[in-house]
Amino acid sequence: MADLPVIDQQSIQNLRELNPGDNDEFLREIVGIYLEDTPLRLTELEQSLAAGEVPKFTRAAHSIKGSSANVGAMLVRGVAETLEHQSAKEGLDHVAPLLANLKAEFARAREALVALTAR
After folding, report:
1. What is the pLDDT of residues 58-72, one digit of tens each?
2. How far is residue 112's CA from residue 91's CA, in Å, rounded to a whole number?
3. H-type helices in the chain, by residue range?
4. Stretch 84-96: mean pLDDT, rounded?
5. Taking a C-beta distance cutoff of 8 angstroms, is the pair 95, 107 a contact?
6. Which residues of 20-38 are buried (b: 16+ CB within 10 A; e: fewer)?
7. Which residues are recorded as modified (Phosphohistidine) (predicted)?
8. Which of 85, 88, 109, 116 satisfies CB 3.0 to 4.6 Å to 73 for a cystine?
9. Average pLDDT of 41-47?
10. Is the pLDDT reported for residue 16 higher than 90?
11. CATH number given to 9-117
């Protein structure tokens, strides 16, 4: 997973092709939604971990996995997928280090997406 780019350019190109000729307005909109929503999901992960709510944790990880794949944040997607599966199969006992890794990867992805969509 470490050899994946922070942002998959093919995913970005796929988003651009959904609304060609719009000067990346659609791309900026999708990225903006991702950058607004993902911190909320990260908070959900933290809160559900603290409360021991496995289903809520698993759903939040699943949500981050899907939205990250949509914008090409493949490292974020990979960590979220691991969190989703681990929490569903083994509970929350050993997810804290992965959650810290997820936050770090999201920070990297956010920086790359902001740079990519800057006008």
Report:
1. 999 999 999 999 999
2. 32
3. 9-18, 25-51, 54-70, 74-90, 96-117
4. 96
5. no
6. eeeeeeebbebbeebbeeb
7. 62
8. 109
9. 98
10. yes
11. 1.20.120.160
